[in-house]
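Why this split exists: single-chain examples teach little about how molecules sit against one another. For that reason, every record in the complexes split bundles all components of an assembly together and asks for one structure covering all of them. Below is a record exactly as it appears in the raw files.
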Amino acid sequence: MEPLLSAVGIRKVFPGVVALDGVSFDVRRGEVHGLLGENGAGKSTLIAILYGVYMPDGGEIYINGRRTLIKSPRHAAGLGISVISQHFALVDTLTVEENLKLSGIDVETAVKIGRELGVEIPLDKYVGELAVGERQRVEIVKALARNSKILLMDEPTALLSPKEVKALLAVVRRLAEMGKAVVFVTHKIREAVEAADRITVLRRGRRVDTYERPFDEGVLLEAMFQGVVRRRVSKSSSIGDVIYRAEDLSGERVRRATVEVRRGELVAVLGVAGNGQEELMALLSGFKKPRGGRLIINGEDVTGRPFSEFLRRGVAYLPEDRGRALAKELSVLDNFKIRCIQGCMEKLAKAKEVLDIDFPSPSTRAAALSGGNQQKLLLARELWLVKPYVLVASYPTRGLDVDTAERFYALVKSAVKGGAVVSMEDVEEAVERADRIYVISRGEIAASFTPPFDVDEIAEAMTT
Amino acid sequence: MRLVQRQSPSLLHYAAAFLGSLATVILIVFALTGDLAVTARALATVDAGYLFRVFVVIGVVSLSGVVSYRAGLWNIGQEGQAVVGALAAISADNAAEAVMSAALAAAGWTLIPAALRVAPGVNEAVTTFLMSLAAVSAARYFVEGPLKDPAKKGFIATVEAPYMEPALAAVLLAGVLAGVVLLYRTRVGLTMRLLSSGEEVVRYAGKPPKLYIAATLGLSGILAGIGGAVEIMTRDAGRYMTLQQVSTGFGLYGISAAWLGGLHPLGATAASLYIAWLYQVAVNLKVAGLPALVANALVGTAMAWGLAGYVMYKYKVVWR
Amino acid sequence: MAVDQVASITLEALRSAAPMLLATLGAVVGQRAGVLNLGLEGVVYLSAAVAAAVGPPWGFVAAVIVGTLYNLLYYVLSNDFALNQILLGFAFTMVGYGVGSQVARGVVGRPIEKPVVYGVEAFAVAVVAAVAVYFFLRSRVGLAIKASGDDPASLDLMGVDVYNIRRVAGLVEGVFASAAGAYLVLLYYGSWSEQLVMGWGSLAVITAMISLWSPLLAIAASLVPSIFISLAYALQRLLQVSPHLLNVVPYVASIAALAAVQVAMRKTRLKALAPRWLARPYIREERT
């Protein structure tokens, strides 16, 4: 069957990095085609090109056999391509109905399609009030109402709870049944296997291969990571006394959270996104002042003190939003100097080597570095250089390829003198890396686990 | 048409911006005078001493711009801060006292926008601009009132400001320039530059952002105030203010020089020479009968080119 | 104060509130789209100059055409070409002063024959315009303008061209601001001099913020500077204070009002009303 959309030899280059190097890909009507790859493999870039946000530096795109240049999102929409991305095309400050009007979608049609899909559209609510899963469903209905024939879904399950994931996958199958061509981008093998008819694996900007049903998870794993991944389950051998304690911590979302970190321990805070983890990390690091509760480092109460005080006591904070920790407009060297006082040029050169950070020169603007390299720069500065006492990290491995994530954990072991508390999204990652797991749900610590870990028990705690 | 980030930013584009500005200026002058000979005369006539003095003043004010914009703070009230500085100079007995009281007065004038930015986060561009409009009226009050010179019969003007040798002013400029260059080598200067990436980054670095915001805006105001004082004190004649002639326009010139110089202290100083020349051209045109505000038009376009230069430095224009 | 004095101050305030409201409506639309246009001062000034130079009745049309094109140029340069919004606005104001003063050089001081307009009529027209803007902002284009100021990235993803929408906002802003400028010369002051029209555009920018970007609130908010402006005239006759100091009052009062409003905004949910991307540059391919 002739593919509805076909991309041949796509190439895309950004300052300092080749995101896509001659990737070919196609999708048929009534098919769910999974685009699988680890973070940084180029999946999102390919989607952005198919949706007209970026222009390729090489290669062609064919729609229904005709060569097409996709010039803008508007153009893509006109060609029948819709995207359901991690970034919703929904304006928080407008109601669902107003958003539909803006997108030029007939409200009645949308409601009808919603019912066909088994979904309820809350017209009068402000988008800002809706949960993530609800917003996503509005997006899908919008796409259908526009008579889209090709749906591009970029990591759609990223922010969903396990129950919502099931619902979404059902909707995806329904879409294929309705005759749409769906491209399903993910880094989770299980999901791709469950939802897709065909799977294409990308690795480091290149296409590895395209696979048909039935799928072999081992083969897919190897294709994604080039050889079996050496997952060293490195646990701490000796754990000492409590060095850092947060008692009944409360903020806007967080309520009465109590967290303890012992010497030599790596503590994981696990939860579905949107349950207050970001705020908890900000509170634990001292970057944000709590509304209630206490923070005690080595027996001393430091609640409410300025962040500089926490820094002095050896607390390092890796926020999920790098914009807090990195000055994008300044050079790499200037950013390094935020924590470095003397001999910074030499130290930066050493760090570049040790952590394999890719940048043309110390005076390059930090914004020009890729996300992964920015993160590595942060790790170099906050861990390698500073050698902190307590590390508070918010989703530090998000968006990183396995290599870099491995490097992160190794660095935590070698550079952190006391202990670390890290927030994660992946149960497997937590079980593998942590000495203790706290599960956060709706801003509260719902449960805490110590080894041996029972994955099902933990997953259950996350969904209450 | 799209804007794509450059792989490696290039300074050549500032040169291009400068040439663009030059071309625009020539075109404007020709359009206004309609006569090639007059245009050539307006562009070529230069009074070295006058040019030097104007260059020094603009140089000082340009550093006010650099300090503010490098920190991502938008002080555009240099005009008013300069006026306040000039008033302080008028009421002083000698040059040294004038510079110090100008600094103090300008700091005071900048206090309100700074405080409002720090506390409820009111946009400092709006407040400093309105304050500079208000400064003109306030100055007129002083011209008619406390600073009025009773000896001048027939027209209303203030007493004279003390005289400052242009050479001394140049030394002052050099000192301020060195000060700013050195400042940016320190941690304080680094923190000021961090501010342009957001208050959170400054707090992350362990420094109090509000203090830095107030200090940076204050410093920017002080430099503009000193510029205003130097301006009135280095005049050969007429070191006083009248009702009609309150603001001198040097606020705009300094800001333009800051941008055309790539927000770099040395670059801004170099650009100040170019802007000073533009001012000379405007004076020549005034002699030919055009109104004084034409200088604004020339310099305003120079600033637009400076802003364009900044964009060209970071981005490439792709037409497709 | 005697009743007729209050009446005359009120009438005077309404007369000046009309152009203030018009300019403010322009600023509201522009700021809603996310653009903080400090060049509005220059647009008002330039349009006034053109109106004075051309004279009634065609001066009005000429003023609107020139002013709107000037404003549109600002929008193209600051959005499509990403020149620094705030500083470019400042530059446009300075250039506006320069070009305007040259254009109107010939008519300085010459009285212009103006129709007798009572305060209430002019203000009523402006109020009607405000209501029109209110409905405009609820239309599809108006929603797009609001989205452009709150979340341009999402708007772009929706397939609506952000740069295009902002140009539309620039057009509307330009029309209102230049109308205000023409009004000031042809109907309010009735003559031209270099310093006359200064300050109106800037006060409109701040009044838009005070009215929390709502055209209906702008009706009331535009009375704030107007009252102070007319109060200044009245107080001049009453007190022995220098007129120059009184001229400072509208600026200081507006700044104080804005500060008060912003403090109140922070304490309450009203914070949500501010366009989130105000004065932030939007570049489509920005890789963060």
